[in-house]
Amino acid sequence: MNPYIYVIFTVLLWGVAPIIDKLALKSTDLFWGMWARSTTIFIFMSVIFILGRRYNILFHNFSPKGLFLFSLSGIVAGLLGMFSYYSALKVLPSSKVVPLCSTYPLVAALLSVLILKEELTLLRFLGIILIILGIWLVK
């Protein structure tokens, strides 16, 4: 199967989720929304964990450092990032919040050059310029 199917699937799912979130925030406090989302993920992941162990289809690599970094990522993006995102989405139009918050590749591109020592090619630099132009156009 073409791996870009996963990219397309991700784009569609991440495109639908903010609409669902905006509708939910009309009747539910953002804390409870985050709690419901996280609890649901926990339940589904628990089922996957149990079935995966039973049928021996998951869990080939285990690293305490990797788990720590995933936990840190969960706190940064899943807790703090979602809290600030839902706070913005509750009071601002989703047509502005979603595109502006979707500029995170700009941060990732810059940090990947600084921290991961990835190469800043001409195409990546042009991509960064286009992201900045997109921010200006959406505001």
Annotation keywords:
2 domains; globular; 139 residues; mainly alpha; 0% strand
Q: Could you walk me through the main structural features you see in this protein, from its secondary elements to its overall organization?
A:
With 139 residues, this protein is mainly alpha-helical. It folds into 2 domains: 4-91, no CATH class; 103-139, no CATH class. 81% of the residues lie in helices and 0% in strands. It has 6 helices and no strands. It has helices spanning 4-25, 30-55, 64-91, 94-101, 104-114, 122-138. Helix 2 (30-55) packs antiparallel against helix 3.
In short:
Helix content is about 80%, strand content about 0%. The protein has helices at about 5-25, 30-55, 65-90, 95-100, 105-115, 120-139.
Our count of domains comes out at 2
Order of helices and strands: HHHHHH
The gross shape turns out to be globular
- Helix fraction? over 70%
Largest sheet: none
Multimeric state of these chains?
single chain
Summed over residues and divided by their number, the pLDDT gives a mean of: 88
The portion of residues forming beta strands comes to under 5%
**DSSP helix count?**
6
From the N-terminal CA to the C-terminal CA, the straight-line distance is 39 Å
Q: Give the tally of β-strands.
A: 0
Radius of gyration, rounded?
A: 18 Å
- Structural class designation: mainly alpha
Contiguous low-pLDDT stretches (5 residues minimum) are none
